[in-house]
User: What shape does this take?
Amino acid sequence: MELYVLRSKEEIGLEVARRIVERVKENPNIVLGLATGSTPLPTYKAIVKYSLSENVSYKNVTTFNLDEYVGLDENNNQSYRFFMNDNLFKYLDFGTTSHHFPSLENISSYDEEIEKYGGIDIQILGIGSNGHIAFNEPFTDIKEKTHVVKLSENTIKDNSRFFNSIDEVPTKAITMGLETILKSKEIILIATGKNKSVAVKKMLEGTYDPSCPASSLNLAKCKVHIYIDDECYEGMK
Ligand code: PGA
Assistant: This one.
């Protein structure tokens, strides 16, 4: 694991975007694993900025998203498909069949589909305040592939800020499993803000603790880059 402490979430966005755009230039057929939530927004904004100013094409890039709520379709502005279109896809020249999201229909073939494309070259991750990655909540089996999860109270509460009320937050989601994520060829996890400090500290202890799913990244065979901001770092002291 390699840790980078930068001043702000905007600075992290620029740095991670630079890394990703360079990789897309090197390999126009790259397979990207994408995350939603507030954390990757500065990164997506900077990817769009760099890509448009440097004429980088995404025509042959394939994307696999980490997760999706059960029961929200792509027209619902809280669905992750909507989020990705709104914040990244619509600005770039992706092909119409470039994007993959886990769903109740493809749940048993999602991991195979990723393999069919040669695996995920770079996986972007956020982290929950309880240490979850994607929707893999504490004590998820590390051998899980893409599966349905019942969201924890903690996650429903955290995510309720995006909805009109906590009752509107779906209680179930479909997520890549820890095994799916750990198969990626490179992982970039971003954590910004003080409310992530406890989870990040646990993850950086260097061993796998099932109470903090992000700590499973200590078992990854690939390069894992952890980007945190000053606020997150200060909270770890
Ligand atoms: P956030 O969520 O980016 O909205 O903080 C991160 C996560 O739950 O993985």
